Amino acid sequence: MSAQKTILTGDRPTGPLHLGHYVGSLLNRVELQKSYKQFVMLADIQALTDNVDNPQKIRTNVCEVVLDYLAVGIDPSKTTIFLQSMIPEIAELATLYLNFVTLSRLKRNPTVKTEIQQKGYGDAVTVGFLTYPVHQAADITIFKGNLVPVGEDQLPMIEQTNEIVRAFNRTYNTNVLVEAEALIPRFARLPGIDGKAKMGKSLGNAIFLSDSADVLSKKVMQMYTDPDHVRVEDPGKIEGNTVFTYLDVFGTDIITIAQMKEQYQKGGLGDVKVKRYLAEVLNTLLEPLRQRRAEYAKDPQAVMQIIRTGTEHAREVAAHTMMEVRQAIGLNYW
Ligand code: TRP
Predict the structure, then answer these.
(1) CA of 254 to the centre of ligand 1 (A)
(2) Which residue lies with its CA nearest to atom 6 of ligand 1?
(3) What's 23's DSSP letter?
(4) Is residue 246 within 8 Å of 282, Cβ to Cβ?
């Protein structure tokens, strides 16, 4: 057994990745791949749970998301990038887990509960959707993931995973399954360009990593600032002012930023000037990513090959755990 910890994390491939992903998860993954065995899953089966009639969207975005991964520096020689749907062992394990989870427990999962409300499913929620946390438990444990870097909203999933792990190990008197620990990113959530608490692809308030410099600048120009800062001479607020929040996160020249803040608060600094500066900061940051992305995008087959190689490796690991699980239960007939 290796002492090196295993990281398992994933994304639903339902759209290109944005700056919120960049600070919330992608940068972390680039760091973590240096010292851990890292698996990053394209959760296409999970994405289907609320996109059942739109598989094409998922299919298209698999490649987009991987291009984003490669653009930010997730290195396929260090990180195993793989497709959930191509590893049937995950579904097999999830089936076994279903016996350890009650309906009322699933309905109490806070994240799922909120999602059911938001999507207006009510009692018409599908079993597929309701049980996605159980599948997620299989995603994590089949790779013996010790550390799971996720946002706060995913904490209930880790909790539910560990309940399953403990119940399974106790019932079959084994220790094949390992408990997982959530790794919450240092950065708080990045607000959307509209100032809302969260940037989201479906909220229409995101700056995508794949946005051109032009599109990015336009989005920055629309950003929410201080609604009471009407004239340049007026003193402005920097708290809750998205442009300054972004400068705090992405800016590197802290002296310039401190001066701008001071002038903005005193009065005499216009929004447009700050926005131009922010657009420049972001474009400087994203330019090398765009170039790398464009390079990889020229050869979609090579990208698919990266996913395929990763998936083949991931499947070997998953099959091995599944064999141990079968042994533990006594489902190893020959
Ligand atoms: N539920 C996660 C999300 O919506 C995606 C995901 C699926 C995941 N399986 C996972 C994350 C396993 C971490 C570990 O973002």
Answers:
(1) 35
(2) 10
(3) I
(4) yes
**What distance in angstroms lies between residue 158's CA and the mean position of ligand 1's atoms?**
10
Q: Which of 8, 40, 41 to mutate to test ligand 1, by most ligand atoms within 8 A of the CB atom?
A: 41
Q: What SS3 class is residue 147?
A: strand
Hey, what domains does the chain have and what are their CATH numbers? 6-190+299-329 (3.40.50.620), 213-294 (1.10.240.10)
CA 101/CA 78 separation, integer angstroms = 35
Is the shortest distance between the CB of 10 and ligand 1 below 6 Å?
yes
- Tens digit of pLDDT per residue, the chain (334 long)? 456 899 999 999 999 999 999 999 999 999 999 999 999 999 999 999 999 999 999 999 999 999 999 999 999 999 999 999 999 999 999 999 999 999 999 999 999 999 999 999 999 999 999 999 999 999 999 999 999 999 888 999 999 999 999 999 999 999 999 999 999 987 768 999 999 988 988 889 999 999 999 999 999 999 999 999 999 999 999 999 999 999 999 999 999 999 999 999 999 999 999 999 999 999 999 999 999 999 999 999 999 999 999 999 999 999 999 999 999 999 999 9
Going by C-beta distance under 8 Å and a sequence separation of 6 or more, which residues neighbour residue 100? 163, 164, 167, 168, 171
Residue 318 CB less than 6 A away from ligand 1: no
Instruction: Determine what percent of the chain falls in helix, strand and coil, rounding each to the nearest 5.
Output: 60, 5, 35
Q: How far is the CA of 62 from the centre of ligand 1 (A)?
A: 14
For the Cβ of 139 lying below 6 angstroms from any atom of ligand 1, the answer is yes
**Residue of 136, 181, 184 with the most ligand 1 atoms within 8 Å of its CB, for mutation:** 136
**Alpha helices in 149-270, H assignment, sequence order:** 155-171, 213-221, 242-250, 254-266
Ligand 1 site, residue 6, Cβ cutoff 6 A: no
Q: Which of 7, 8, 11 to mutate to test the pocket of ligand 1 (most atoms within 8 A of CB)?
A: 11
Residue type, 10: G
321, HSE (Cβ side, Cα atoms, 13 Å): 24
Phi and psi at 36, nearest 5°, equal -130, 165
